[in-house]
Each structure stands twice: as C-alpha cells, then as structure tokens.
C-alpha cells in the first residue's frame, strides 16, 4: 500500500469536517487568497488541546486527497486565552491547485497555489479607486457626483462665499470627504509602483494601450493640480463633519452635494507629499506617456511649492482634524529626492539627505510616515541610507517574534496599511541589497491581511472564503456590502476606540477571538476597523502588484 493511499484511508472519515474548528475546537488560520509555488507557506493553529506531535495534512481539494503531511510546530507565544499555538509549514507544496489544511477533524478555509494568484487581487484593489472617483471622472458603481466642489472657502475661522474648482479626485474612504494629504500619498504610491516595476503594472482592462494604473493616478494628479489655491496654499479638505450626519446615500444623491466647503491651508508636511507626487508624475508623463506640456505643468508646480517650504508652518492644521501629521521630515526628504530625480539639481539631493537623517528609521508606514520610501530613493545615490531600512525591518522582526500572528507593529487606526508597510519596506530593501533575510517576515504580513489572523478573515473584499463583507462604505452599503477590492482599515487595540460606543447591527461572531491587543468587527457601522481607504488600497496595490 502506498503512503498516499494509506494517508487517504486515514483521512477518509471526516474529510468534509466543520470549518473553523471541529469537535476539539482547533482553529486554522491561513492566507485565503493563496500563494505562488515558490512562496514561503505557513498557517497558524490555536486550540485548548495539546496537539504536540500531531500531524497536519495538505489536502488537494479537487482530488480530495492528501498531498503533503508534517508535524505541527509549537510556538512559544500565546494567543488570547487559548492554551496552545502552533505553526504549520507547507512551503514544500509547489504544485498548482486548490488546497485546504486538515488537523484531526478540523479543516482550514481553502486556498490556491498558482502563479497568477495576485493578478486578480491587484486588479480589484485598483478597481476600488474607480469606485472612489468623484466628479466627471467616469466612476464605477455610481453616477457622476459632487459637480460643484467646492461651494465655499474656509480659511481659519473665516468662510468666504466663493467657489474654487476642486472637482474630481477620489472620495477618501467610506464617506464623501476628499483630502489633500491622502490623495497625494495615494497618487504617489500608484506612480511609485509603476516606476518600481512597470512590467508588473501594465494591466489594461479597458484596452486603450495605457496602463490602467497610470490612468487612475492621473485622476489624483489632476485633482492635486486643482487643489492649488492661488499658488500659495492648498485645498486641504473638501467637506466637513456634516458629511457623517446624513446617513447612507449614493454620492449622486448626496443632499450635501451643493454644500461642500473647501479648507485652505499649507504646511511643510503637505508640501512634502504634494511635491513628491507631482515630481514623479512629471517624469512619467514625460518619458512614458510623451505628454510634455502636462509634465512641465506638474514640474513647475512642484518646484514652486517646494520653494515655499521654509516660509510655512511645520504641520498644516486646517480642516477638521483628520490626517494630521506628527512630523514633516520624511515627506520633505521624499519631495527633495524626487525633485533631484526630475531635475538633476544636486541641491535637492543634499536637502533630501538632511531631512531623511532627521526623520531616521521610522519603523512605521502610512499616510503620515513615508520616510522608508525616501530612504530607498536616496540609497540609490548613497548606500548608507539602506541602514535605515534595515533598522526598521529589524525593529519589525523583533516585535513580530513576540506575537502568535507575527504583527510587526502595534495596531492603530489604519493597521492593515501599516502591516503591509513591513512588506513594502522589505521590497525596497531587497531591491537595494538582494538580501532575503526578511522574506518570511514580509510574507506573514501579506498572509495576515489575507486571513492568517486571529479572526480568520481576509480583509480584502471579495477575496477568500471568509472576507470583510460589511465594509463601512456608502456605495458598498447599497450593494449588500460587496465592494470589490475594498480593503478594510484593519484591527486595532481595543483602547483605540476610547469612549466611542458604536451601535453594531450584528452580534459579534468573532467574540472568542477578540483581545485587547487586536479587535475587529465586520459590521457596517465600524468605521475604525472596517472602513476601506485610498491610502490602504494604494499601499496594497504596491505590495501585491509587486508579488505578481
Ligand atoms: Ca488602460
Ligand atoms: Zn463625489
């Protein structure tokens, strides 16, 4: 009797066992989107029963037969009140197919192994941006909206009864506000993804011979140009808190559609990210798209605003309190190195190094923390800046090793973006050094957002067997929660909620997996953990697009 047949007989009873834990309540958490054949492949198991020495099986879903077995490995970390945590490693399974993991009578959700596993995921993450489109931008899943942005101007305490053309761009997240900080961040990340690996981002679903990624980025660039307020400041925010008081509605039916103030402000932080986006845009529209006049306009505006940096406040404080940066140095470093790449003028590179040294190794990624990208760019001219990336990765690794699910950072608002920042940093570091030291660290962060987490949820709709299906999103709400490519904000420490008491519409199906360190709800009302954002999607596009 062959080994394989023996395995099959041993497994013949209970092959269709209960999902997410059988009689022994063994919970298996795995990336549900799947792996490429050469990837490091692991899953996490937690339970109250001692499984020492127990074997796990990788089952081919179609043949309903085991293809691989090994013993589970005990972890030294504990998760919540569960007594035991284990890891299973099935890196050696390389044949393309659909699989699930089986331990005793418990089975994991299914996952794929194939070379195209991230193609559809990346395309959907990008599709989300076309849902976010505002104004006359050919939006997806809704009609043209907010055609009069902005209908008044707010400067400090004053309201001016005048309009300014800030139409277009993207709604920032689940509601209908628009922000300069995150629009510039997201535009930058889309363009940086293209520049980093153009061959991976040439997707052209609308068959017009232009990368869909660049078409989407131009929606951002166009809006950023319109957010230039009289060459001296920016429209930093469109719409205020009343946006969140009128309930669920499609954007074209927004009762506040003709009552959308624009806040005016400027700061070193905003100049940094704004100039970075325009500067990289000017190179791509010149060299790749041969649109010289547009490129020149972007470059001229970028140079103009960068020159204002010493005459403005450090951190812009206009608007109603969202997306306020803690520091500006990483962003100015990025602006300066981008201007150096665009113009070749060495004073910009000197500035970039100075700002990046002050910013240091941030060990954080998000709309407020872009220093890692500045370090990567500067390191191409001065390799000593590679050290800052390695320092951040070492910091993430140390944090990760103390956690069952391997999170490299504590979980704050926007955690999924920050977690993917670990992978992003590793991509940049690998490109510079060829060093694979942090490959598994990066891998488990990608796995985390796709299901290798305590809830067993893929945070990208609608990828995986169990995914974020009730995102806090106005348009998703009218589509039964389905928002293709919507990427949930991510779990947070319970303390992040503070005194906020959300009135959930559904009971907590995850109650036994919630901890004070990590809390997540798949419920429409949860705008803390279940709201998708353009910044989160832009980061995810960079990471998963590069894994293609
Ligand atoms: Ca196209
Ligand atoms: Zn709109």
Q: For this structure, what is the CATH class of the largest domain?
A: Mainly Alpha
Mean pLDDT: 95
| Helical content class | 25-40%
Structural class estimated from helices and strands = alpha+beta
Number of helix segments?
14
Which residues form runs of ≥5 with pLDDT under 50?
1-23
Tertiary shape: globular
Radius of gyration computed on alpha carbons:
24 Å
Euclidean distance between termini CA atoms: 40 Å
What name is given to the CATH topology of the largest domain? Glycosyltransferase
H-E string? HEEEEEEEEEHEEEHHEEEHHHHHHHHHH
- Residue share in β-strands: 5-15%
Q: Can you list the ligands bound to this structure?
A: calcium ion, zinc ion
In the residues, how many domains can be counted? 2
Total beta strand runs: 15
CATH architecture of the largest domain: Alpha/alpha barrel
Major sheet description = 6 strands, mixed
